[in-house]
């Protein structure tokens, strides 16, 4: 609490604080307020831009599947569906693999290798979205088309009940491909957050569990993971926030078809991909406004997800005694 | 009893094996992506890429205008974003450390940190492109700067808070004003950490595409005019990769390799800086 010192006692010279002090303090406050203003500005500007479309379609905007620039019928349902489905696919894969990486790095990995492997995984997070896009389109999608998708169609596609999700010709691109690319992209986030929170678990808990005769896996499953559950959920939601808004990589491989297909092998679209693809081509005001309305929907969803993530992560920080 | 123990041991072996496999998978993904980038990108990477502008379909050319455009927009975005980020981080760590306002700003900043970058593009489109009536490099620059700020705010606040309070107290005790303590003592001892944040921000915006799509747009010609559309490496990659022309696709791969090398070098440099700080 050194802060109070300066404020309570007058300057030794008895002068008013130098004007440099006031200016500097004012500048830092102004800069901090810019951060706040940015968020408010995003909300207000998106809302104003979306207003013509929201006014025209009302709540119907969220339940209409049509996306037809010619007849000016726009609905958010298909992009919203694609956004959610691709993100779910990504999380289903990335969460267990990310946890696995974290467990490996905190338990089994030889100590000298921990740092280099940790950095390598984090570098995956640094690779720009556009790189995943070009790689996904030219390398991963053909691989999906020739190998993975025919396999899925022949096996899971014939199973009654879930067969419809894996039906149709192998396009290569599509919602599954986009979901898998997203999984690779959010994997390092989950892994590094999980690793960080695993390290906050007191050694005494681990040692006590080992002392009881638990195996490594049992210690992690029954002691470590439950101990940091809320932070793990927070980290997962942080990754989900990224997946929901991810643009370029998805734009390359989703196929950009504004419709809802049952099969996840079919092309679809997401909110961010629709905006990225169509915004500069939007010829009418209503078209542009509908795309901005999509952006507003995306921002509200990611805001809620990220806010929830923050609250959950703060809980563990407080416990770690920050 | 012993069959139960055997089963537990087996489960343990399987699950820990899966954990190891996960890490191997992560490493393999990085290796595969880098390998493809190098093999596909390096084959068409020559001096012309740096010296010639983007060509027409099936014509010879390079990426000069896109590289220069990216450099200009990135540098100016950093120049705008760094002071705002460092000052705001200073407010959160120093003047407003315990204030209610800081709690809100921290929360908002963490959300902006992960907010979709395409949303920032839409915001700047509304803010600048609509009001000015045309796309401009300046709008792209502002969009990138908005992405720089939260990263720098976060790292600056974190490293300033690592500086022990005794240093602050010592400075104040000898009669130095608060802002001189911050400038001369706090910033000096936290310099490596602040630079790490700046490098991370630079790495992040070097590859950003979505915020430039409808702010800076793109330009087939060499341009230094901030008030006009400007080419950038990521947007050029986006356009060329999705084109049907072989030469454009080859240039897209070269550009992708350039960006990745730059971004990874920046990320590694940022990490090396942090290590040194921790060790010293």
From TrEMBL, chain A:
Supply the SUPFAM superfamilies for this chain.
MetI-like (SSF161098)
Q: Does the keyword Transport apply?
A: yes
GO terms of biological process kind: phosphate ion transport
User: What Pfam families would the database entry show?
Assistant: BPD_transp_1
Q: How does it sit in the membrane?
A: Multi-pass membrane protein
Q: Name one GO molecular function term.
A: phosphate transmembrane transporter activity
Segments forming domain ABC transmembrane type-1: 80-309
Cite the InterPro entries for this sequence: MetI-like (IPR000515), MetI-like_sf (IPR035906), Phosphate_PstC (IPR011864), Phosphate_Transport_Permease (IPR051124)
- In the UniProt record, which is one GO cellular component term? plasma membrane
Q: Which residues cross the membrane?
A: 26-51, 80-105, 117-141, 173-194, 291-313
| Subcellular localization, as worded in the UniProt entry | Cell inner membrane; Cell membrane
Which UniProt keywords are listed?
Cell inner membrane, Cell membrane, Membrane, Phosphate transport, Transmembrane, Transmembrane helix, Transport
Q: Which PANTHER family match?
A: PHOSPHATE TRANSPORT SYSTEM PERMEASE PROTEIN PST (PTHR30425), PHOSPHATE TRANSPORT SYSTEM PERMEASE PROTEIN PSTC (PTHR30425:SF1)
What is this protein's function? Part of the binding-protein-dependent transport system for phosphate; probably responsible for the translocation of the substrate across the membrane.
Q: Which family does it belong to?
A: Belongs to the binding-protein-dependent transport system permease family. CysTW subfamily.
In Swiss-Prot or TrEMBL terms, this protein is called Phosphate transport system permease protein
Give the species this sequence originates from: Jiella flava
The lineage is: Bacteria, Pseudomonadati, Pseudomonadota, Alphaproteobacteria, Hyphomicrobiales
TrEMBL record, chain B:
* Cited NCBIfam families: 3a0107s02c
Species name: Jiella flava
Annotated ranges, domain ABC transmembrane type-1 = 67-270
The annotated topology with respect to the bilayer is: Multi-pass membrane protein
Any GO BP annotation: phosphate ion transmembrane transport
GO terms assigned for molecular function: phosphate transmembrane transporter activity
**Record-linked SUPFAM superfamilies:** MetI-like
Any stretches that span the bilayer, and where are they? 68-92, 104-128, 134-153, 185-205, 250-273
Protein name per the record: Phosphate transport system permease protein PstA
Q: Which UniProt keywords apply?
A: Cell membrane, Membrane, Phosphate transport, Transmembrane, Transmembrane helix, Transport
Q: Where in the cell is it found?
A: Cell inner membrane; Cell membrane
Q: Name one Pfam family in it.
A: BPD_transp_1
Decide whether keyword Lipid metabolism is in the record: no
Q: What family does this chain come from, according to its entry?
A: Belongs to the binding-protein-dependent transport system permease family. CysTW subfamily.
The UniProt entry's GO CC annotations, sorted and at most eight, read: plasma membrane
């Amino acid at each position: 609490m050194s802060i109070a010192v300066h404020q309570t006692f007058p300057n030794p010279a008895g002068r008013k604080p130098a004007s440099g002090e006031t200016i500097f303090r004012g500048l830092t406050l102004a800069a901090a307020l810019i951060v706040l203003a940015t968020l408010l500005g995003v909300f207000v500007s998106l809302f104003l831009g979306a207003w013509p479309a929201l006014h025209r379609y009302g709540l119907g905007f969220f339940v209409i599947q049509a996306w037809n620039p010619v007849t000016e019928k726009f609905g958010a349902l298909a992009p919203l569906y694609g956004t959610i489905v691709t993100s779910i696919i990504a999380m289903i894969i990335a969460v267990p693999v990310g946890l696995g990486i974290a467990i490996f790095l905190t338990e089994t990995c030889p100590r000298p290798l921990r740092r280099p492997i940790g950095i390598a995984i984090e570098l995956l997070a640094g690779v720009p979205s556009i790189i995943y896009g070009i790689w996904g389109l030219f390398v991963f999608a053909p691989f999906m088309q020739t190998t993975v998708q025919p396999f899925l169609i022949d096996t899971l596609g014939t199973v009654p009940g879930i067969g419809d999700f894996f039906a149709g010709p192998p396009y290569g691109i599509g919602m599954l491909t986009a979901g898998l690319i997203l999984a690779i992209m959010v994997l390092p986030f989950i892994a590094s957050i999980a690793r960080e929170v695993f390290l906050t678990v007191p050694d005494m808990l681990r040692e006590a569990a080992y002392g009881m005769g638990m195996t490594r896996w049992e210690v992690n499953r029954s002691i470590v993971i439950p101990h940091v559950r809320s932070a793990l959920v927070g980290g997962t939601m942080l990754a989900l926030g990224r997946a929901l808004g991810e643009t370029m990589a998805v734009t390359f491989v989703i196929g950009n078809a504004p419709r809802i297909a049952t099969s996840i092998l079919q092309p679809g679209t997401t909110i961010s991909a629709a905006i990225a693809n169509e915004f500069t081509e939007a010829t009418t005001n209503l078209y542009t406004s509908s795309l901005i309305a999509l952006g507003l929907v995306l921002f509200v969803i990611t805001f809620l997800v990220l806010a929830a993530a923050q609250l959950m992560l703060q809980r563990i920080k407080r416990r770690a005694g920050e | 009893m012993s069959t139960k123990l055997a089963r537990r041991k087996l489960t343990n072996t399987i699950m820990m094996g899966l954990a190891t496999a996960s890490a191997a998978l992560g490493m393999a993904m990085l290796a595969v992506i880098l390998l493809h980038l190098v093999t596909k990108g390096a084959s068409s990477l020559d001096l012309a890429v740096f010296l010639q502008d983007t060509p027409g379909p099936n014509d010879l050319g390079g990426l000069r205008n896109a590289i220069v455009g990216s450099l200009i927009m990135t540098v100016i975005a950093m120049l705008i974003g760094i002071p705002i980020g460092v000052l705001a981080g200073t407010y959160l760590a120093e003047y407003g450390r315990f204030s209610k306002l800081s709690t809100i700003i921290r929360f908002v900043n963490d959300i902006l940190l992960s907010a979709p970058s395409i949303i920032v593009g839409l915001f700047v489109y509304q803010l600048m492109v609509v009001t000015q009536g045309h796309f401009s490099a300046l709008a792209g620059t502002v969009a990138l700067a908005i992405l720089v700020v939260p990263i720098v705010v976060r790292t600056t606040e974190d490293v300033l808070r690592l500086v022990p309070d005794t240093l602050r107290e010592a400075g104040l005790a000898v009669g130095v004003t608060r802002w001189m303590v911050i400038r001369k003592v706090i910033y000096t001892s936290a310099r490596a950490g602040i630079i790490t944040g700046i490098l991370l921000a630079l790495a992040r915006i070097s590859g950003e595409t979505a915020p430039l799509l409808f702010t800076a747009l793109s330009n087939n010609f060499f341009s230094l005019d901030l008030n006009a559309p400007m080419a950038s490496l990521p947007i050029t990659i986006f356009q060329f990769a999705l084109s049907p022309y072989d030469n454009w696709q080859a240039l897209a791969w070269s550009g992708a390799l350039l960006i990745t090398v730059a971004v990874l070098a920046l990320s590694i440099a940022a990490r090396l800086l942090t290590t040194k700080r921790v060790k010293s």
